[in-house]
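U., I forgot to send this yesterday:
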Amino acid sequence: MENNNQNKLNANVDIKTLPSLTCDECKCESFINAYIIKRVSPLLTETGKPGFLPIPTFACSHCGHVNVVLDPTKTNNIINTNGG
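Result:
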């Protein structure tokens, strides 16, 4: 049986004590929602036509930079486009 206690966050964490992520370029601490758009080959789409794959991420609100740790295209992850 799975231990559900491992999946729960401690609600008593003081967020003021947590370190903030900063932009690697300008050191700004605020980020906005952004998308990295990947082109998809017609050979990989159901329609046989070229497509686009939007990948959500966060960009610096000051300079627009996307930190490597926030860029899923810089990892070796395989993205499931079937929604499952």
